[in-house]
TrEMBL record:
<dbReference type="GO" id="GO:0009968">
    <property type="term" value="P:negative regulation of signal transduction"/>
</dbReference>
<dbReference type="InterPro" id="IPR016137">
    <property type="entry name" value="RGS"/>
</dbReference>
<keyword id="KW-0734">Signal transduction inhibitor</keyword>
<dbReference type="InterPro" id="IPR024066">
    <property type="entry name" value="RGS_subdom1/3"/>
</dbReference>
<feature type="domain" description="RGS">
    <location>
        <begin position="86"/>
        <end position="202"/>
    </location>
</feature>
<dbReference type="InterPro" id="IPR036305">
    <property type="entry name" value="RGS_sf"/>
</dbReference>
<dbReference type="InterPro" id="IPR044926">
    <property type="entry name" value="RGS_subdomain_2"/>
</dbReference>
<dbReference type="Pfam" id="PF00615">
    <property type="entry name" value="RGS"/>
</dbReference>
<protein>
    <submittedName>
        <fullName>RGS18 protein</fullName>
    </submittedName>
</protein>
Length: 234
């Protein structure tokens, strides 16, 4: 029987095998870069997560923590002691006001001191034209129902303030400001004076630096001078 390849010269089995082999290899080469790209993406995500963990990305968070009241400015123990004389003394000094504001942020009640400062700024207005826009902003931010930073006011105080807002005067927010002032003086201020960050300032300690521990005494060469070895144990 004659060889089939001689009868059908157009049939090339080896060529068909080469083509199928080429298709398989081609598909494998397409898949390999895809698989290799996955570890690269994972590494990028890891690098991004490490980058976000750096201190500079969370600097604002650190300022709100109790252990960082003295980071913004250097406070002497004598100055910190003066803050304990009265609540008015604390608020009259910029460093004290900053420290107390940071403390209130740790208790999620900073809207009280922000309202008080807004009222102080409001009373510095020079003309009647300045009063209306400032009064509107203060009312919408701190006074009205469901305000973004609504302060805790009794019903009577809120009603009087709401009525006076239509024709604002320098004294429009006096009653509300005094109410919030007394609330901070009787509630938040005593807790501030008992807080560890404040007590550290009074003692002259820097809250951002850990206390150094003394090293335990170790033996030196001099400790063994004059000591004769005992070989009887051998």
């Amino acid at each position: 029987m004659e060889n089939p390849l001689l009868l059908f010269p157009q049939l090339n089995i080896s060529a068909s095998k080469d083509k199928s082999y080429y298709k398989v290899m081609k598909s494998m080469t397409k898949e390999e870069p895809h698989k290799a790209s996955k570890p690269g993406a994972k590494q990028k995500r890891n690098r991004l997560s490490l980058l976000l963990q750096k201190p500079e990305f969370h600097e604002s968070d650190h300022l709100g923590k109790p252990g960082n009241l003295a980071k913004a400015a250097s406070v002497s123990p004598e100055e910190a002691v003066r803050w304990g004389e009265s609540f008015d003394k604390l608020l009259s000094e910029k460093a004290g006001l900053d420290a107390f504001t940071k403390f209130l942020k740790t208790e999620f009640s900073e809207e009280n001191i922000e309202f008080w400062m807004a009222c102080e700024d409001y009373k510095k207005s020079k003309t009647a034209h300045e009063l209306l826009p400032k009064a509107k902003t203060i009312f919408e931010t701190f006074i009205q129902k469901d305000a973004p930073k609504e302060v805790n006011l009794d019903f009577h105080t809120k009603e009087v303030t709401t009525q006076n807002i239509h024709q604002p005067l320098i004294t429009t927010f006096d009653t509300a400001q005094n109410t919030v002032y007394r609330l901070m003086e009787q509630d938040s201020y005593p807790r501030f004076l008992r807080s560890d960050p404040y007590l550290n300032l009074v003692k002259g300690r820097n809250p951002s630096r850990p206390t150094l521990r003394r090293r335990s005494r170790s033996f030196t060469v001099n400790d063994f001078q004059g000591v004769r070895p005992d070989f009887t144990v051998w």
